[in-house]
Amino acid sequence: MSAPKKKVVIVPCSGIGKSFGTVAREAGYDLIEDLRPEQTRLVALSKLVMGDEEAKNIVAAHPAIAIDGCKLNCAAKMVRESGGRIAREVAVQEVFRRHKALKPEGIAELNPAGQSLARVLAEELTPLVDALTSADSTEDRHA
Ligand code: SF4
Q1: What sign for the dihedral angle of Cα 8, 142, 122, 118?
Q2: 136 C-alpha to center of ligand 1: Å?
Q3: Does the beta carbon of 80 lie inside 6 Å of ligand 1?
């Protein structure tokens, strides 16, 4: 019998109107839909902002990865305010600085470079997701 699967909550910022915010959201979707669908779960920032009880309970019960599109760090702040535990907060700019060729443009629809940046960001997070959800992972100590 296998133990219940551990989950990591992914909270991208809502970043409406900003390409970097759209990259944050796309990276979240890449993780939950393609890269680690069994181990991750998306919680919408808007639900936390509205104080949605179910969203708050999910965030309180699992380690969270916050992905933010600018230095206001809305996702990371809301996770903390909602009683969540941040395992990692990532800024899209930080990843872009290392991948300058992938300049995101577009908002409703990202350009191919922006989509690639989102993918790179998501892929960089997979080792952490694996570590947090492995059978013998211990409590995160960065809180
Ligand atoms: S972190 Fe920046 S881009 Fe994202 S929702 Fe907040 S203000 Fe918008």
Answers
A1: positive
A2: 34
A3: no
Q: What gap in Å lies between CA 40 and CA 65, rounded to an integer?
A: 10
pLDDT tops 60 at residue 102: yes
How much is the CA Rg of the chain, to the nearest whole Å?
A: 14
| Residue 13 near ligand 1, beta carbon < 6 Å | yes
Q: Whose CA is nearest to atom 8 of ligand 1?
A: 15
Structure tokens at 80: 């903390």
Q: What is the pLDDT of residues 62-89, one digit of tens each?
A: 999 999 999 999 999 999 999 999 999 9
3-state secondary structure of 129: helix
Identify the pLDDT of residue 14: 86
